[in-house]
Write a sequence for this structure.
């Protein structure tokens, strides 16, 4: 996403992780044997003989409770990159009736690295079912993956704890029972959760809750980064960015990043967009995450065309771990990538958790042998590569603006916004 073009082996020698979704759909990466998979016509049966092999890595759940809605998760990879027209999770009852999980994904890039699909939620009656992942090619053929048994048990009977004395009726002076915590709405300012790491044994070591003005100079720098070829802009990375600290503001415990058309012309002749950027690099604190740390942010994903927000790390020309990247043209997808020890990355898709104008919590554990990603406190991907024992890098939270090569550029001149509730690091 962010490597300067001056590096000796630029990521653009092949489509970068941020561009693979679009590149797979628009370039020769799809023009391989088994053309029916890629939007071209093919003879019936050609898929199985000549197309890529799709392997199912994980299918869940294996059990459910009757009447309780649950989502299904399918993780797959393939022998070579292609785009599937549809991916989903099927369910059949004993009579063969179709009771699939809702919310199939469309135009899905599947490659040798993992892809995870999360369905919409549904409830099922008690019974035993056959569950399986499936995908559809662009020739219209459906391909079922290995099936497993899904057991839906009867709803458990409510349990009552015996009491020696009847529970007294509350008097007006008694404190009311606390209401359940509500999930913040897509548009409201979030109710900031208390600091808590999903990884046992970690304590909060550094954070910005954005409860006051940005602490420029001491905590954050907003006008330059060594990740940008020209310090404050980097057109060679498909960005229209021109970094401007004035494009980050704080109100009501939320930092808002705003991108607006700028007055500067980039080296490639395109008009720049002034945009917000926060990095610990160059600050007097100089905070860095290290091997074993867990970093987390809660953000409201943008809707504006051209928006490209991310939480990532950078140091000494690399050090890049992308906690997430997001593009509104793929509204339910997060890109999760380890560039320090590359090999595996994930397109995490979840329509219920990831959406435009919706708050979501995203975290990353920088393990020595595996980088792990968390969404809303649940681990969704482990790359099995890690960052090594001596990793350290600066944090970056920003809103980039796409130039249009891999994802759409801004449509018109309306401002683009992206919001963050906090950034926390546990050690």
């Amino acid at each position: 996403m962010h490597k300067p073009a001056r590096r000796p082996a630029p990521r653009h020698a092949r489509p970068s992780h941020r561009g693979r979704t679009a590149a797979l759909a628009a370039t020769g990466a799809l023009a391989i044997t088994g053309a029916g998979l890629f939007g071209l016509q093919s003879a019936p049966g050609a898929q199985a003989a000549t197309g890529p092999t799709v392997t199912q890595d994980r299918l869940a759940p294996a059990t459910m409770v009757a009447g309780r809605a649950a989502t299904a998760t399918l993780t797959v990879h393939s022998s070579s990159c292609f785009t599937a027209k549809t991916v989903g999770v099927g369910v059949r009852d004993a009579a063969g009736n179709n009771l699939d999980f809702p919310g199939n994904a469309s135009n899905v890039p599947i490659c040798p690295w993992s892809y995870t699909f999360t369905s919409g939620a549904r409830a099922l009656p008690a019974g035993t079912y056959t569950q399986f992942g499936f995908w559809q090619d662009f020739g219209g053929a459906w391909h079922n993956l290995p099936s497993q048994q899904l057991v839906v048990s009867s709803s458990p009977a409510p349990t009552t704890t015996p009491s020696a004395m009847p529970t007294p009726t509350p008097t007006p002076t008694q404190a009311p029972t606390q209401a359940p915590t509500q999930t913040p709405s897509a548009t409201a300012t979030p109710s900031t959760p208390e600091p808590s790491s999903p990884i046992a044994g970690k304590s909060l070591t550094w954070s910005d809750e954005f409860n006051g003005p940005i602490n420029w100079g001491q905590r954050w720098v907003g006008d330059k980064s060594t990740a940008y070829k020209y310090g404050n802009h980097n057109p060679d990375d498909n960005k229209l960015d021109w970094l401007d600290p004035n494009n980050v503001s704080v109100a009501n415990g939320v930092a808002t990043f705003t991108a607006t058309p700028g007055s500067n012309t980039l080296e490639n002749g395109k008009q720049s967009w002034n945009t917000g950027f926060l990095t610990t690099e160059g600050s007097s604190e100089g905070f860095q995450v290290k091997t074993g740390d867990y970093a987390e942010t809660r953000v409201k994903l943008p809707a504006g065309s051209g928006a490209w927000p991310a939480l990532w790390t950078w140091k000494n020309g690399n050090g890049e771990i992308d906690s997430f990247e997001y593009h509104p043209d793929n509204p339910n997808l997060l890109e999760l990538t380890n560039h320090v020890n590359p090999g595996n990355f994930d397109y995490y898709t979840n329509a219920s958790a990831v959406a435009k104008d919706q708050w979501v919590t995203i975290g990353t554990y920088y393990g020595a042998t595996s980088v792990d990603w968390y969404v809303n406190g649940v681990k969704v991907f482990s790359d099995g590569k890690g960052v090594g024992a001596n990793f350290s890098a600066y944090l970056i939270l920003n809103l980039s603006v796409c130039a249009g090569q891999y994802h759409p550029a801004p449509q018109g001149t309306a401002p683009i916004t992206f919001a963050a509730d906090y950034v926390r690091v546990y050690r």
